[in-house]
Amino acid sequence: MNKEVKLRRAIKDDWEKIYKLYNSLSDEDLYLRFFHLYRITEEDAKKIASGGDHITYLAEVDGKVVGEATLHMDGEFSLVVDREYRNLGIGTMLVKQLIEEAKRLGLKVIKFYTLPENTPMIKIGKKLGFKIRFDEDEVYAEMNLREEKEMEVIAD
Ligand SMILES: CC(C)(COP(=O)(O)OP(=O)(O)OC[C@H]1O[C@@H](n2cnc3c(N)ncnc32)[C@H](O)[C@@H]1OP(=O)(O)O)[C@@H](O)C(=O)NCCC(=O)NCCS
Fold first, then answer.
1. Residue 118 CA to chain centroid, in angstroms?
2. What is the DSSP letter of 79?
3. Whether 70 contacts 48, CB under 8 Å
4. CATH level 2 (architecture), domain 5-155
5. I need a surface site. Which of 55, 61, 72, 110 has the fewest CB within 10 A?
6. Which of 18, 83, 123, 140 has the most ligand 1 atoms within 8 A of CB, as the residue to mutate?
7. Which residues is 132 bridged to in the sheet?
8. What does the pLDDT look like over 137-154, one tens digit per residue?
9. Could you tell me which residue ranges the N-acetyltransferase domain spans (predicted)?
10. Does 3 have pLDDT greater than 90?
């Protein structure tokens, strides 16, 4: 894609753009994003945009929000990319950004859950070094963010 993809923290005023992105998603996308089928309300979009107990990053192309990724303080995150902008590396960029954010916040782990058939998400996890556990109907992936520091202490 020739167009520039911009990643930035969501702010309160973004709620309408987030609401628009979510309204453009299929039932399947919503299921993968929330782990159940859910059409978000304007209030939900406002909560996503305003943070507080979570940090949300948006991917924008020409001012249009084409991706959203939210990190919770227990290290769990989830994301979604507009179908028309998939397979361009935006999902990978968003997850990399959340890993940096989690490190900055001093979180111990960063993790996600997904379904075994979600090949793109599993590929992202593997590529970025998450440890992945495959169960029958769920995939759990985590990355320990303190390992390096703990090893440094042991080495001292
Ligand atoms: C998962 C998701 C965010 C990935 O977004 P994306 O912008 O397409 O991700 P990327 O472009 O970084 O691609 C990720 C990898 O999947 C691969 N991929 C994309 N679509 C694929 C497909 N249909 N089959 C196999 N691989 C695919 C890409 O080639 C890429 O592989 P690479 O890293 O080896 O190059 C997006 O598919 C999505 O929004 N899905 C619905 C919601 C969801 O599943 N969220 C995850 C909840 S934890």
1. 14
2. E
3. yes
4. 3-Layer(aba) Sandwich (3.40)
5. 72
6. 123
7. 141
8. 999 999 999 865 555 555
9. 5-152
10. no
